[in-house]
Amino acid sequence: MKRIAILGAQWGDEGKGKVVDFLAKDMDVVARYSGGPNAGHTVIIGDKKYILHLIPSGILHPNTMNVMGNGMVVDPESLIKEMEELEKAGVSFQDNLLISESAHVIMPYHKKLDALNEKIRGSKQIGTTLRGIGPAYADKASRIGIRVGELLHPDILREKLAFNLKIKNAIIENFFGEKGFDLEELYENTLTWAEKIKGFVGNSVLFMREAISSGKSILYEGAQGTMLDIDHGTYPYVTSSNPTIGGILTGLGVPKDAVDTIVGVVKAYTTRVGGGPFPTEEKGSIGELLRNQGHEYGATTGRPRRCGWLDLVALKFASWINGMTHIAITKLDVLDGFDTIKVCVAYEIDGEITEEFPTNPVDFAKAKPIYKELPGWKTPVKGISRWEDLPKEAAGYVEFIAEATDTKILLVSTGAERNETVTLV
Ligand code: GDP
Ligand code: IMO
Ligand code: MG
User: Fold this and answer.
1) 27: CA distance to ligand 1 center in Å?
2) 259-289 burial, b for 16+ CB within 10 Å, e for fewer?
3) Each residue of 136-145: pLDDT tens digit?
4) What is the CATH number of the domain that holds 149?
5) CATH number for 30
6) How many structural domains does the chain have?
7) What residues have a C-beta under 5 A from ligand 3, the ion?
8) Domain boundary among 200, 230, 263
9) What's this model's pTM, rounded to 2 decimal places?
């Protein structure tokens, strides 16, 4: 297992940060390939809690090189804040962080437009993280985006900012009736941000090529999750990138053989933040219990996460889309104490039963879950680190998921800390 992809198999927040940190100690490189500061990856080490948004979760291991790939969107303000927080916590990143010069920059106008776009959607809000993700990726696709490398060329930067502000200010002022951005002020601020990050900017495609050719071990850190994928997720209630497997190849410029193990991180139940259909959502006391036991509040926005049972229909789809070879089950301890545990094994859509995930959002919005009930376990699994110590019902639950998704079990997480982990491979 030299080149491992760690991907979210649900709607994000599966515990990718914990899994990446756990595996990163044996890795030469940890590389992010998509998304931006919409991600919130929590790593808990002893009494210290780190929440990483842009910087890969391998940063807590001093000998691991951390790459922010070309597929990402980078908000310099947010990046600098994250760097300052790491510095305060005594985490060094001076020699082990590389930011792709081809990654796109999130500008303040992207964040403003994210908020304004949400406002006009009214009851159909996506519930974005308001980090400017959608507008920044839209500019990338429209070929008017600013790349990180261009921050280091003041003349080009000024020209591109001037061009962009013409369009953005027209929309912000004329359509939304709000105050636009001042070119000089934005230009000066951007130069200040550029000064702080320029030492980390470089050719990440070349770096990855050399790492692969020299046989380095690589961990690809996914952000968001399969169901938030712009192509395969529950559109339009998705993010604007490809968190799924394909995003690795395009978001880092690596060939297909550069990934040999594909791990889907699966929370033992399901959560979702923001709008959009969620067939297994529990809106009553069970949802409340999961939220309380699992501390399900967003790591980026602090919003309460919507909670419900595991959705195997969606998970099997995620396994196919990503070619998952393994699963890492997290937060098994949160299910401690339930008499029985429900798992959605099929949907009922317009009176028809199906085990296939509908790719038409109109159908998915109508999906009602058909459940299978599995026995719960009455002893706590928190902190267990050996497979044979798991209660047989808990082990059975994990095996049931692996069998249904046709994957092997890589690890089971029984608590937020590094050592609260059962490894199987
Ligand atoms: P990510 O975005 O996929 O990295 O996940 P988040 O960090 O947003 O959310 C996962 C939350 O669950 C964090 O607060 C983690 O500290 C916590 N966590 C991770 N694994 C476990 C686990 O096995 N048990 C418990 N109780 N908490 C966990
Ligand atoms: P990690 O990496 C959970 C959700 C938002 C919203 C939708 C679009 O921590 O798992 P965006 O700001 O991306 O335009 O929002 O996607 N979302 C996430 N939900 N975890 C994440 O990241 C998410 N990143 C985006 O809540 O519904
Ligand atoms: Mg998160």
Assistant:
1) 21
2) bebbbbbbbbbbbbbbbbebbbbbeeebbee
3) 999 999 999 9
4) 1.10.300.10
5) 3.90.170.10
6) 2
7) 13, 40, 299
8) 200
9) 0.97
